[in-house]
Every structure is written in C-alpha cells, then in structure tokens.
Amino acid sequence: MPPRICMRSLLDGLNASLTTTSRLPIRTFSSTSPISAAARKKRKHATLDRYAAAQLERNRLANRTRQAELRAEDALAAGDPVHGRPTPFVESFDAAIDLPDLSPDADSPPAPPAARLKHFFDPDEIEQTLSKAQHLAHPINTAPAHPGDTSPFAELLENHTLQHQTATEAIARITSLTQANNEDLLRVNIQRCIDVFGRHSTDSTLPRKALAASPGPNLSPAAGRRDPAPVPRAGPDTGSSEVQIAILTAKIRAVANALETRGTTDKVTKRDLRLLVHRRQKLLQYLRRKERGGPRWVNVIEKLGLTEATWKGEISL
C-alpha cells in the first residue's frame, strides 16, 4: 500500500518554497521604449496652465522676430552683393565720364578731364581734321574785299562758315558717348579702369605694402621693410587684380542694369551676372589675402564701393 501523506507536511513544504521564492529579486520586462526628451517636454508643457503656455509661446515668437531683425540688420550692413554701395566712380560708368582729380595733394584747381569719344576717336585728331577740311573748302577770293562788301564772295564765305559749324556739330554728335550703345560705353569704361587702377598709374601714388620681418641667421630684424621698387613697365597694366576687379565691376553694372529692364525671365543674362559676381568674389578674396588690408585693397574698396557682401560668405542670386 502507498505511504500515507500528511496534509500538514504538504502545507509546510509549500509555505517554505513560497518564502524562498519571494526573497529573490523580481525583474520586470516592458515592451515599450523609454520616454524621449521631446515627449517628456511635451508632457511637461501639457501640465502647465493656460497662462504659462501663452506666455511661453509669446516669448518664443518674440525670439524668432528678434532673430529675423538681426539677420536683416546684418544683411543691410553687409550691403548688396551685386551693386555694393554707390560711389561717384561707379555711377560714372553709366555715362563713361572721367572724374576730375580731387586729391588733396593737388595745389592747382582740378583741370577738366579729357573727353572720350566713340570708335576710338581722339579729340585732337578730330579737331585737326576739321581745321584742315575748313581750310581746303575755303572759297578763293578773286577780288579785294571792302567793308560792307555784298559781292558773291561774301555770301560764299558766310555759307562756308555756316556749313563748317553744321559739320562740326554733326561730328560732335556722332562721336559723343551720350548716344553710344552699351558696347561703346563698356569699352570706354574698361579703358578708364585700366587708367585709374593700373599699377603704371598707382605705383607713383600708393605706398608699397610692408613686408613681414623675417631675419636670417646673420641678419637683424628688418622692421618696416617695403616691397622692392617696381620694375618699369613696357605698357599699361591690364592684368593686375585691381584692374580685373574694376573691369568686372563695370561689366556687372552693365549686365545688372540690362537685367532690370528685361525682367527675371532672361535666364541667360542672369547666369552671366552670377558668373561675373562669383569671379569678382574670388579676385577680391585673393587681393585681400595678398595685400593684407594694404593701400591697394583700401583704394579698390573705397573707389568701387565694394562691401563685405561682395567677397565674404556665400553669394546666391
């Protein structure tokens, strides 16, 4: 016969096993991920009252508005990446008129600048040609002239004078830049840029930049050293950075004015403007790095009205 099991012993064993199990650490498992920072922040804001939530939203809106104002102020201070700021020399590109020399070193009053004409004409050459034409077309006097003479020769002489005046006015209108097209204006402006910013002209007026002191093993520090004297040039300077920047500024102004009249539908002109602006930006960065804020850099920036927006940062048009 099977042994008889006491109910009391069974209950005591069961209680002992439960007591041992309850002493073990119980580990809980959760299928959900931990709460993120954004969700915790959202839950915290949800617990706020309506007044605190409205005040928080008001502060956030004021912060965004202030940031937009600061960005607008920075953009205004940086200037226009295309036009820069207006200067007399840049504004003279529209009419291709030379400005008088207003330097404080000049003792005498500034002389009027020489007029520039279309088609590579020289004013002195035109004046000599007109004088020679007037002399060749002058009528021949076959009779002695008397005061109050009303002979046919007097009428011929008067007609000849009137015809010469008419021809002079016609030649002046034909060769004047007031009726020139964009190509003639750009050609004259390029020549003006070469004459103003070329080193064949500025070497005698602008001081040479200071070199960094680099003493050798047997040399003393040469504080305040300057660039060596410039080598005499065989012709006008057309390839320096200053001249190229000035020429690009003249082209940019011409293209920008044409784009304003045609509208934004002219994609080709807009692309040309973007290429010219970026090319000028690279030259400006090179000149600034090379001159280290020297007199040539200051001369280019002041005369052309170039701001930080024309060379600093990213330019998007």
Q: What key attributes describe this structure?
A:
317 residues; ribosomal protein; mainly alpha; Ribosomal_uS15_bac-type; structural constituent of ribosome; 11 helices; elongated
Structure description:
With 317 residues, the chain is mostly helical. Among the domains are: 41-78; 81-99 and 181-206 and 236-317, no CATH class; 118-138 and 151-175. Helices cover 55% and strands 0% of the residues. The chain has helices at 7-23, 37-46, 50-78, 88-91, 123-136, 152-175, 182-197, 199-202, 241-262, 267-291, 295-304. α9 runs parallel beside α11 (295-304). The chain starts with 6 loop residues before the first helix and ends in a 13-residue tail after the last helix.
Topology:
Blueprint: H1 7-23, H2 37-46, H3 50-78, H4 88-91, H5 123-136, H6 152-175, H7 182-197, H8 199-202, H9 241-262, H10 267-291, H11 295-304
Helix pairs in contact: 7-9, 9-10, 9-11
